Amino acid sequence: MISHRAKKVTVENNIFVDGENSQAYFYLAGEMSDVRVRRNIFSWSSPSADFVRLLIAPGASLCQTLAEFDSNLIFSASKSLVSVCGLAEEPYDDAGIELSRGDRSFASWQDAGYDSHSVLADPLFVDPSAGDYRLSPQSPAFGLGFEQIDVSRIGLSRSHHQRHAKGKPGDR
After folding, report:
1. Burial (CB count within 10 angstroms: exposed 0-12, middle 13-18, buried 19+), residue 85
2. Which residues are within 8 A (CB) of 2 and not within 5 positions of it... i.e. 6 or more apart?
3. H helices then E strands: how many in the chain?
4. pLDDT score of 101
5. Which residues does 118 contact at the CB level (< 8 Å), separation at least 6?
6. pLDDT digits over 48-65, tens only?
7. Which of 39, 60, 88, 149 could join 28 in a cystine, given CB atoms 3.0 to 4.6 angstroms apart?
8. Cα separations in angstroms, 170 against 161, 165, 166
9. Residue pLDDT, tens place only, 106-150
């Protein structure tokens, strides 16, 4: 999701669904600073996927880089444990946080100061099996300040489809 050298980045009011390996991935290196992740929805079904994966290069600091990661709605549809980890066989190093490959727990992530106001709950999508990720009015995301996304404005525009369909018989 966010790679090295990012500064003053805010990731807010997004819906992340079914990341195969993780829902958020950070490669922290260089002069990254002031990254904020708040009021997002993370939902996944794979029991082997992590919530967050971190790759922290030597000399980089999670605590100095990730200024805020909070007020998110987190849901593992498979009911697997919500986990945070560094990737296997990659360096995971940060003197400012007590979190290691051995302790992948969400509680350790929270003890480090992240997601302390986040909620672990079903986001109550309208019909996720049909790709409808609008939220029902009862969604707990609204209590975190999440704002409904107008999905009619997401994706390729109708004019894009019309421009690219003309003159291509095989594409109609």
Report:
1. buried
2. 9, 11, 25, 26, 27, 32, 35
3. 3, 12
4. 46
5. 70, 71, 72, 73, 74, 144
6. 888 988 877 777 777 778
7. 60
8. 14, 9, 10
9. 888 888 889 999 999 999 999 999 888 999 999 999 999 999 988
